[in-house]
Amino acid sequence: MTTATELAFIHRLIPAAEPGKPPLLLLHGTGGNEDDLIPLGRMIAPGSALLSPRGKVLEGGMPRFFRRLAEGVFDEEDVRRRAQELADFVAQAREAYGLAPPVAVGFSNGANIAAAVLQLRPEILSGAVLIRAMVPLQQPPAADLSGKRVAILSGALDPIVPADNAKRLASDLRGSGAEVQHHILPSAHALTQSDVALARDWIREL
Ligand code: MLT
After folding, report:
1. CA 98 to centroid of ligand 1, rounded, Å
2. Is the CB of 30 under 6 A from ligand 1?
């Protein structure tokens, strides 16, 4: 068994304050770290355990979860490798901390790696909230996502994520059997209060 100190990502773990609530896997955006989304996790799922790793890839000193060749152009070989590495970490952290399969809550680059984990290792996550996500893999594997609930929160004015790309992600995940809610907010790339409210309501209904 892997102990908490041997786990392969720098991370924070906030233990559950209320048993039975779904744990969250918090995945930050480019330039973030393991502390960034803890306040969001507390707001949208009070009492849940929070597992928050730091992305291992550095872009000009900024942590990310996989390499990109340019903004919105991903190194898909790295996406696949890093998604597997993150999935292994989650499996080991579940064992070390005694956690149920988590709901991923990812922002931007963190949402993109969460989508890749869903497609490559569906057993790792019980669902996902993907905030400002894009298609991580142009040719996703044939995953079975039946029974998985996914919320995609996109911004109609997002300069980074083209509207069609987010729609395609929703349709890829639905095509694999996930139950997807896709909300398009009147916002840009940054997180807003509407994201917080939608994510909180969605998690409450799980
Ligand atoms: C990515 O690289 O994952 C997306 O372009 C979002 C970002 O991190 O800016």
Report:
1. 31
2. yes
Distance 39 CA to ligand 1 centre (A): 21
Question: Which residue is catalytic, options 158, 172, 182, 187?
Answer: 158
pLDDT on residue 61: 98
pLDDT of residue 177: 98
pLDDT tens digit sequence for 19-28: 899 999 999 9
Q: What CA–CA distance (Å, rounded) separates 25 from 44?
A: 12
**SS3 for 97-145, per residue?**
HCCCCCEEEEECHHHHHHHHHHHHCHHHCCEEEEECCCCCCCCCCCCCC
Distance CA 27, CA 108 (A): 9
pLDDT of residue 1: 62
C-alpha to C-alpha distance for 139 and 118, rounded to whole angstroms: 14
Other CB atoms within 10 Å distance of the CB of residue 70: 6
Nearest to 112 by CA among 127, 133, 131: 133
In the chain, which stretches have pLDDT less than 70? 1-2
State if residue 47 touches ligand 1 by the CB under 6 angstroms criterion.
no
Q: Which of 75, 88, 183, 189 is catalytic?
A: 189
